[in-house]
Design goal:
Layout: H1 3-6, H2 12-25, E1 34-35, H3 37-44, H4 48-60, E2 64-67, E3 71-74, H5 79-98, H6 105-122, H7 126-142, H8 147-167, H9 170-189, H10 193-220
Antiparallel strand pairs: 1-3, 2-3
Helix pairs in contact: 2-4, 2-8, 3-4, 5-7, 5-8, 5-10, 6-7, 6-9, 7-8, 7-9, 8-10, 9-10
């Protein structure tokens, strides 16, 4: 069974859950945003019961928050969550890229993400730059050849994008990493996976420090 077939949703509820998770990853939904059940069900052309099923799953994952008399809102990650997300990212991504090789499908997807990031930067579309960056790291995880790990990483990506959304400065957060992504990719394409791994680990440490510092400034306002 290939990765695509193993990751296909088995029910409409799972499909909608994936759709909403994608909206979180791509920055279409932002932290603290209240989700109108009626409007979202109409937009997705589904019943409210199906939407509630997706809401329950995403609430268990910590991506949404249900409050009595307020309904469902997009979650707002805290500092401990951000630290844990980066801990998981380093563990997964660094091990995945260490076993990568130039002609792996994940490497090709990394190339596509880098090119998308460059195009978005040229257009000054910083939200799209952030989305391309998320796709780059998803492609890194694909190097592990584990469909289950890719699905799990989808949840991590959604939580991370929520953290970025709290900071509300996509250019500051994402612009430095377009060239870093390209450099990591170049080393992998040249068969230098060990060097690419070291670069990625340093990159993730720098990214974590940047996000935490920005988060702390926002919380002090």
């Amino acid at each position: 069974m290939n990765e695509a077939s193993s990751a296909l949703p088995r029910t409409l509820g799972e499909s909608i859950t994936q759709d909403i998770r994608r909206m979180l990853v791509e920055g279409e939904l932002v932290p603290g945003q209240r989700l109108s059940e009626a409007a979202l069900a109409e937009n997705l052309d589904i019943s409210r019961n199906t939407l509630r099923e997706a809401f329950r799953v995403l609430t268990r994952e910590g991506l949404l928050k249900h409050e009595p008399n307020r309904g469902v809102t997009v979650a707002e990650p805290d500092m401990s969550s951000i630290i844990d997300i980066y801990r998981v990212r380093r563990f997964i991504e660094c091990k995945a890229i260490a076993q990568g090789y130039p002609r792996h499908p994940g490497t090709l997807h990394m190339r596509e993400a880098v090119e998308a990031g460059v195009r978005a930067r040229e257009a000054q579309d910083w939200v799209a730059v952030g989305t391309a960056n998320m796709m780059f790291h998803k492609a890194v995880v694909e190097l592990a050849d584990s469909p289950r790990l890719v699905v799990f990483y989808g949840q991590i990506s959604a939580e991370l994008r929520l953290a970025f959304g709290l900071l509300n400065d996509p250019r500051f957060l994402h612009s430095p990493y377009v060239d870093m992504n390209a450099s990591i990719l170049r080393h992998l394409e040249e068969g230098r996976a060990e060097e690419a791994t070291a670069m990625l680990e340093a990159y993730l440490v720098q990214s974590e420090r940047t996000v935490l510092a920005a988060y702390e400034r926002v919380m002090k306002r």
